[in-house]
Amino acid sequence: MVGTTQTTARPGQSTQHRGVTPAVTAISQMAVFAALVAVLGQVAALPIGPVPITLQTLGVMLAGAVLGPWRGAGSMLLLNLLTAAGLPLMSQGAGGLGVYAGPSAGFVLGFVPAAFVIGLVVQASWPMRWWRTVLGVVVGGVGVMYACGLPVMMYQLGLALPEALAMNAVFLPGDAAKAVFTILVTHSLARAYPAPFTYARRRRRIPAA
After folding, report:
1. Which residues, at least 6 apart from 10, have a Cβ–Cβ distance to it below 8 Å?
2. What pTM does this model have?
3. How far apart, in whole angstroms, are the C-alpha atoms of residue 132 and residue 77?
4. For residues 93 and 105, what is the distance between their CA atoms, to the nearest angstrom?
């Protein structure tokens, strides 16, 4: 028929998201996970001590594990930039540059390298491996997070390392539960909807269905 055109998808090319560029997809994914971490900061926030207990680190773990190192870290960088600009996105509605002057500043800034390390380890291969996911979530989501957070907390509060470790021991059971949840959700999502795992899928070319 005159005036109509017909497009044919190339073999292996999905027509579901035709016209959406990879850059737009990446930005939207980062925005979603930045929003997720912001929401988790308002849910079940317990003001215990100078650093409140929240579910934000769960979102950080999921961001790195699902989006990979670059997009995961990018989502946390976006969250920090919006927070610094004054949006109340951190725990209990905190926002502005004052967030980075308090004892939890190191943990907040640690979201970025933590997500990067998690994504780098978890998505190092495809199909993903359980042992690698466990390693990435524990090293990045717990090890890197505390390595960034404790020095700032010690400086701000004038604590010695043993005192800081004792003060943060209350967080460890929750961190373990978040890690387990992240591992289970990540592998379930990788099986059911592998599209976000672009970094891992590039490690090994997947034949078109």
Report:
1. none
2. 0.85
3. 24
4. 15
